[in-house]
Amino acid sequence: MKIAIVIVTYNSAEVLEGCLESLSRGSQGTRLSHVVVADNASADNSCAMATSARELPVQVVQMGRNAGYAAAVNAGVDSLPIEDLDAVLVLNPDCRLHPGSLGYLAKAMDLGERRGITVPRLVNPDQSLQPSLRRDPAIHRQLAESVIGGTRAGRIGSLGELITDPRHYDQPGPAVWATGAAMLISTSVIKEIGSWDESFFLYSEETEYALRARDHGWSLWYEPQAVFEHIGGESDTNPALYALLMVNRVRLFYRRRGRIAGVIHHGLIIAGESVRALTGRRTARAALKAVLRPSKLPWPPR
């Protein structure tokens, strides 16, 4: 398969070099035609680092501002000759590809007629499993997560949205959506369903895209032979990022399920974050303040 890679950067110099260095061996088994670094106005030397990678077909798209993850993905994809490509890998700069991993993702996509998105096994820097597959967002799952937490809910059958059972990650198979750190997307999907939703500045944009692809009859496929190391972000520890994550979960649920279900889901998130805020969690206090602001929500439409 002929593949391009789009990497979104924002002050990513610390991790970008390792990502770029992994691409040559990681893309074995494919024809890597383009590597686009879409930069959200980094203040460090991310752009200079990208252009210095002489062994790769790198081009830099400068956004001129911090436009958000989805907007940078769209700009990167728009810079590509989509008609000449089979798929595009959307990649975080804090990912490292194990040798041949992109080839495994491409093969998995090629074997299924309506496999529009394939995702790898994500591992932490110590090579331990990083759970990345998700089930449908649902009221009963949010209730469980609000009461006992997402990690505990994930251990009880299919109760949690995040799949945490390590045995599930040993075999290939379909999933509803997955962490957006690394997603190989067929150009047929890109042509059919269009751009990423830029109203999600950060978080939930990959959820919305995967669910929209499913609405059009495309499946998301997990391939464990493809292994990507993912350093991971700060959403669990940074109050501002965690608040944005929770606001966008609320927004997406309203958008897809409507007002009644959205209000219930919203209330459960408020309840869960309220309890956690009482225990002194700074992230929960920030999230509670954010989800209580009507201006941050899409219902009623502004």
From TrEMBL:
This is GT2 family glycosyltransferase. Pfam families: Glycos_transf_2 (PF00535). The keyword Transferase applies. Keywords: Transferase. The keyword Transferase applies. Residues 5-135 form the Glycosyltransferase 2-like domain. SUPFAM superfamilies: Nucleotide-diphospho-sugar transferases (SSF53448). One of its GO terms (molecular function) is transferase activity.
